[in-house]
Amino acid sequence: MRKYNIAVIGVGAVGIEMLRVLYQRKFPIANLTVLARSARNIEVDAKKYSVKTISPGMFDGVDIALFAGTEGEKGAAVTYAKEVVKRGGVVIDNGADFRMDPRVPLVVPEVNAKDVKKHKGIISNPNCSTIQMVVALSPIHKKFGIKRVIATTLQASSGAGRSAVRQLKEEVSLIAQKGQADLNVKAKNRSMPQQLAYNLFPHIGTFAEAGYTNEEWKLVKETHKIMHDNKMSISATTVRVPVRTGHSESIYIETKRPASPDKVRALLSKSAGIIVIDDPKNNLYPMPKDAEGKDEVFVGRIRKDPFNKNGLWLWVVADNLRKGAATNAVQIAECVLLCP
């Protein structure tokens, strides 16, 4: 089997998971280059990596560059993606900079792997909460049609980066030291807009059109693009919760044709990348602590809306750093190089 030259750009939470996933999935690597703004040595699962300072010349000979993703005009992909493409490589970007560019495929392999073939050098990895939602909804949409989605996401601190995880840990420690007499604390290095320990808040991203945050609009626009259906009505609320890793989503759907919970369970149980855990009478349903470190999307609490014959509820959980970011990016790379 041919092997390929791979570059991973960024060694934050997602970049570390990319290195881990490449190794665990036995990706056929000839040479691995790890790049960041500054050189250093890191260790991931007892494997040592020499991180080099990023520069255009570092992309010579690279077949695929996995950008872990800093969004906005200072993002590494905005600065260096053209350098990769100019040298004949393919960019897979985890940031938001290219997601809605009509020339750039936005891909979740279980849903729209064929879109990979349309790339012109850059492929975007969707937002973490979008990825797990479309994995769960795509089989239902193909079988029964979906005309409406109402989603509430419960997103872990790691979705805001390692500094947010540190903030949560520090806040929990401060409250424990106070004996919980006062649940209000102030972390020294706060990266989130509110205290997260013993709390949650409906504010992820920046507030934008119609009072929704840009994170909520991502769920709408990215789902439309991935599923090739702009007519699907989607509305979302995104909530930050005191969980380390693993996003959960409460999703209400209205299908075009009636779909019983049993049929949906059977359908999802046979669908790629999904594990159904749905036995609430025995306290069995997906939870973020059980999804952490896994690549599948977990679905449970599948039930009918008693007031709408075409209404269904689902509870969807996934590791936001893996399937929601690193694993999905590596799966895209596998499609680029290995799929017929």
From TrEMBL:
Subunit structure comment from the entry: Homodimer.
GO molecular function, one term: NAD binding
Pfam families referenced in this protein's UniProt entry, alphabetically: Semialdhyde_dh, Semialdhyde_dhC
Keywords: Amino-acid biosynthesis, Diaminopimelate biosynthesis, Lysine biosynthesis, Methionine biosynthesis, NADP, Oxidoreductase, Threonine biosynthesis
Active-site residue numbers: 128 (acyl-thioester intermediate), 247 (proton acceptor)
Catalytic activity, reaction form: L-aspartate 4-semialdehyde + phosphate + NADP(+) = 4-phospho-L-aspartate + NADPH + H(+)
Stated family: Belongs to the aspartate-semialdehyde dehydrogenase family.
EC number: 1.2.1.11
Protein's GO biological process: diaminopimelate biosynthetic process; isoleucine biosynthetic process; lysine biosynthetic process via diaminopimelate; methionine biosynthetic process; threonine biosynthetic process
InterPro entries: Asp_semialdehyde_DH_beta (IPR005986), NAD(P)-bd_dom_sf (IPR036291), Semialdehyde_DH_NAD-bd (IPR000534), Semialdhyde_DH_dimer_dom (IPR012280)
Semialdehyde dehydrogenase NAD-binding domain location: 5-119
The protein's name: Aspartate-semialdehyde dehydrogenase
Record Gene3D superfamilies: Dihydrodipicolinate Reductase, domain 2, NAD(P)-binding Rossmann-like Domain
